Structure formats: C-alpha cells, structure tokens
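Design a sequence for this backbone.
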C-alpha cells in the first residue's frame, strides 16, 4: 500500500464490538451497513476521512472469536495472528461514512463486488444482529495550511472518505473533487462547500478503476496557486497522479496526501 499522511492511531482508541442494525443497497454498486450498540458510546468521532480497522466473520457459518487485543500495534497484531485461524476474524480497513452520537449509529459503505473478497461477501449477506468489531485509526486528511484550493480525487473505494471530507471542510473552501464510479447511478448527494465543484466520472463496468479519474484530472484546466491534494483509491491512481502533480505541475510532495486503498 502506497501512502502518505496515515496518522498514528488515537491513544485512547479501544476495540469496540457492535451489531448490525440495518443493511441496504444505496446505489447499484454501494451497500450501506449501519452498526449500533452500547459500545459505540465510547467511539470518538473525528470527522473528515476517519477510518478504522473492521473485524468480520470469515464465513457466514463461523463462530467467530471477537475477544481481540485492545490495540493492533506490533504486539497486538502478533496476538491477533496467533488466534486459531478457524475462529479468527478477517481484518479490513474502512471509512466512517456517518456517525450519529444519538442514537449511537455508525454507517459504513461497502463497494459491492459479489463474493470477490470477504468484506463484500459479508456485507452482501449481513443481517440485523450480526456482530463485528472495530478499532478507530484516526484521520488521514491533512490539508495544507494556506492552500489556495483543494483537489480531492478517488474511485468508488474512496467515495466515503471524500464525502466525509467535503461534509466537514470549511464552507468557504474552494477547489475540485473528481470521483470515479462504475455507473452514473452510483453518484450520491454530497454536502460539499459551494466553492468545491464535484465531478462524477462514470467509467462503465469494463474499464480499469482509476484510469478515468487520472485522465480527467490531467486533462482539466486546474486552477493556479498552491494546491492541497488528497488522492485515494486503487493504488495505481494515487501513485500515478501524485507523480504527475509533482513532476508536471510542480506541486510539493508534502502537499499531496495519498493512499492506495486496494490493488486491482
């Protein structure tokens, strides 16, 4: 995973066990799972692109052990790997799509790609009462002080993160957000500042994820001035776009927060 800007996890974050209280298909390619439970009273929302480690049953018929280490540092990860594989949950990284302190609800958006991966498989079959665990990892978004404008770029895996950033940015922010999605119907209503234009980029289901977003940004008449960039998605998108911004546009490497969320 290529990344820059990934923070140290919050010191007070602990493992939380929660239950599914709702599951729905919100667009053709996106499923939303809502978690609830008393443990979420200890969840500390940070906004923006707050992410967490999500622990899921490896299979529907598995009696999963959620007695997990309190933290996934080096020692905690070794303890996690030492758990019996038959009952050890699967660990994946996800973004908080929305958190409501009252009545303690946390929304997670999953990209639906059938059984091609344990997270998509679990989300597609999730039922009310199913148990998962999560561990807060903080916020990756790191805007540049004094930047003239913002550039946010991602594919469908980065949509929840970009949506959260747009929701929580100062209302006088300006810039552009390029979001590549499989289908035009996957576009969502976003709470973006009026000065940030959102460009939805439907690629169809045959194209390589990230390619359309990369070419769209490279072919766009980008504003002048100091940019604060955030690029996430299939790893070729953030690495290629960061290289282009630095080498072709003269953007400082420190002005680009980037992360490869997955590999095609």
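Sequence:
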């Amino acid at each position: 995973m290529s990344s820059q800007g990934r923070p140290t996890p919050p010191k007070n974050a602990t493992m939380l066990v929660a239950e599914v209280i709702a599951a729905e298909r919100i667009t053709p390619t996106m499923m939303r799972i809502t978690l609830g439970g008393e443990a979420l009273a200890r969840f500390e929302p940070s906004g923006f692109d707050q992410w967490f480690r999500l622990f899921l049953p490896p299979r529907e018929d598995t009696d999963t052990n959620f007695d997990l280490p309190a933290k996934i540092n080096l020692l905690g990860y070794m303890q996690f790997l030492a758990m019996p594989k038959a009952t050890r949950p699967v660990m994946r990284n996800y973004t908080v799509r929305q958190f409501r302190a009252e009545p303690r609800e946390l929304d997670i958006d999953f990209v639906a790609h059938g059984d091609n991966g344990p997270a998509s498989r679990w989300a597609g079959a999730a039922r009310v009462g199913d148990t998962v665990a999560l561990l807060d990892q903080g916020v990756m978004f790191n805007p540049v002080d004094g930047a003239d404008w913002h550039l946010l770029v991602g594919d469908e895996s980065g949509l929840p993160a970009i949506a959260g950033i747009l929701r929580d940015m100062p209302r006088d922010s300006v810039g552009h957000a390029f979001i590549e999605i499989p289908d035009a119907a996957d576009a969502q209503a976003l709470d973006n500042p009026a000065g940030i234009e959102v460009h939805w980029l439907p690629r169809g289901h045959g194209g390589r994820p990230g390619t359309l977003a990369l070419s769209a940004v490279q072919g766009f008449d980008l504003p002048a001035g100091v940019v604060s960039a955030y690029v996430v998605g299939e790893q070729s998108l953030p690495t290629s776009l960061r290289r282009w911004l630095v080498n072709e546009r003269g953007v400082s490497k420190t002005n680009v927060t980037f992360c490869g969320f997955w590999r095609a």
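The mean pLDDT is 94.
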